[in-house]
Amino acid sequence: MAVYILKRLGLALITLWILSMIIFWVGQQLPGDPGRTILGNLATPAGVAALDHKLGVDRPIVTQYTDWVTKLAHGDMGSSYSFQAPIRPFITSALENSLKLALVAFFMCVPLAIVSGVIAALKSGEWVDRAISVFGLSLLGLPEFVSGVFLIMIFGIWLNVLPVGATPPAGADPFTQVFHLILPAIAIACVLFGYIMRMARAGTIEALNSDYTRTAVLKGLPTKTVVRRHVLRNALLPTITVVATQVGYLIGGLLVVEYLFHYNGIGSLTFKAAQAKDFPLLESTVLTIGVVYLVATLIADITYTLLNPRLRLGGDT
Amino acid sequence: MHRDPKKLDQLRVGRSELENHVIDEFVAGRLSRREFLRRGSIIGLSIPALGATVSACGGANSSPTSSSAPSGVPKAGAKLRIAGVVPTSAINPAQIYDEGGLTMIQQTGEYLSFNDPKTNILKPMLATGFKPNADASVWTYTLRPGVTFNDGRPMTADDVVYSFKQNTDPKVYVDAASVFNGVLTNDGVKKIDDQTVEFNLEAPNGNFSYLISSDNYNMIIVPNGTDYAKWQKTFVGTGPFKLTSYQANSGATFAPNPNWWGGNVLPAELQHIFYPTQQPQITALQGGDVDIVNLIVPAGAEGVLNNPDYTLLDTKSSQHRELSMRCDKPPWDNKLVRQAMALSLNRPEIAQALFKGYAQLGNDNPFAPFFRSTDTTVAQRVQDLTKAKQLLTQAGLPNGFTTDLYTEDYQEIKNYAQIIKQAAQAIGININLHIDTQATYYKDHWLSGIMSLVDYGHRGVPNVVLTATLAKGGAWNAAHFADSQYDALVKQYVAALDLSTQKQIAGQIETLLLDETPWICAYYFDSLSVCKKTIGGVVTTGMGQIFLSGAGPITA
User: Closest-CA residue in chain B for A266?
Assistant: First the structure.
């Protein structure tokens, strides 16, 4: 197991290195330059050139990249061009915000989706199954920006019972923070619900149709026990993996939701950095998201391995 | 109107020739009350002196005031939440140029004088008065006594001189360079004594007082020796608020400055919240998350326009777009072709379509309708397709031609460019549109495109646009227009102190530009902000600044 984890970590580092080069190169292709963005469109070319020189963006791209990587290796993310302040606090704050939103969305969606999937499977072919499946698929086809706008209109403006902005006032208590995150979390849950529910339903149906379930039933075990001990344990393995891989999306892939609900998460910080051609900030945010995705995937793989005795013991899958 | 000659005589004592001339013009009825207040403020007559003169002439002795539209008395102690845009870069007062940045610096920073957006009249701020010499080449400012910065230091002439020297430093890029170029150099700012500062200009300039007022948003006064690059850590200034916290990515909070020279500050706290675009700002206002949205455009704000729950703060401004045509390249080197293009546009329809009517018509010159020196007797250019086609025939282009138009993807410009394309098509001009990001457009096409459509922000007087965009060799002369008669007229206009002279020269410039048409300006659009109907005392400017020291919940 330790070798497996070390191998995965090594691959993750290589992936991050490649990602850093890609994002550095892509960043260079964006139109405009940092000096122009900071000083404005009407700034003189001489003023822009002087600032570009001060920032070091007029150096060869390889020099800029190696300089940045060297600093990063020493734990220094550098300073943001546009904010003219150290990057680390921006990343920390944005990541913290994203984690909060991800947690609320996770606990709002995952239990409900799994339970719904299992119920649909147990009532397979009945109206309950059809209702849950159609509901889940409908939500799956509804993009966040559509559901988000509806949620804002209905609960934020017409009924005025929930805040339209996800950012709570400074110094807000945890309850208030969660209160502000309800609407964006629902928008995210709408997308994930259908996906996770379908996985849970399919896994449960497969488990219900398996030989070991039939054997358990024929042994005369009560249905509840069969479902709890034999069906769910096997049925939810792929679902758990899917949920774990969605953690990356929940933290780093919510730009639309963050934008719509005015939330300063890592997604919107990345967007701002790209708009401003703020290379150090852009690279740091993308790498942070990359780390989140890799860690989430690693956890998913490890969880799957731990829960699946065949993998854990090195057997055939 | 009952006059008090004795009082008027007393008021004239000790006044300069120019000040007495303005008083005479008012007494003789050649200046309206508003014009008198404006001209008087330009040449340095104090507000009490202006009020006393109006009173002596039988008018009410009242100072010019500005306030937002809602009536009622704002209450103290409120916590106001203002939606604004994210500042583009660090808050460096000498370098900020964007809406987010300029709104931030004026929360704690102040100017020598304030251009009242409702009257276009200068009001004292950190200077209690100012006087030009006879030819307006030297301006002397008297500073307000007893002003302290929000860190406790007293404000003196040294601070004012330092602030101006920093903003005219030729060695570093400063945003105000566009205003001071050809007007004021680093050596032209001198301290006379602790309360007096003198500006020796490069050339006479009748509107100089506007050029260093709140219209020049960079020109807040900071303490002597301030490192502008680190200003955002302290937000040190003399204004009604002081910084509580600033988070570059999300917002800023301000508390009242108890030592403000202006007296009590009504709000207990200001919370500026940064949004990336207008849509979430409007949503936040509708959802009750904010009280005020500073600066909106009508498109996308339908939910709050003409809605009785909200008050629209409509300030006339000189924000406009310039569609320049290269006067040095065919076919635009023929003024008949340029005139034809200008005649193809239906300006009232454009203003309605793009701004739902919150705009004034432009007449292809830099004189916005709300400038007092604008000669409004010059006929407004109107759409005339028949004449446009005739002009093209006269120019030897009866079958029209194909050309390129370069512009930027910014605010309404993309839609405006489409309208221009359609209008041109009606007279046989086929335009290939090139709509780029702002970065690409400004870098590659702005000043070189055969046709170029660009955005210009608000300015309180037309001086910068007159010189930079149209004078020979002007830094922003995208039309490559060169006309010695125009240059001479602009020089005269800039030097003129007297309104009637300014107006007379403005008329000549407007007529000349209507004939030459180096660029087309179809509209000047208003600066719009919106707040809850229960909030009053909000003062916004055409520049996009928002002054909130007197704002709060209103009681009828």
Answer: B249
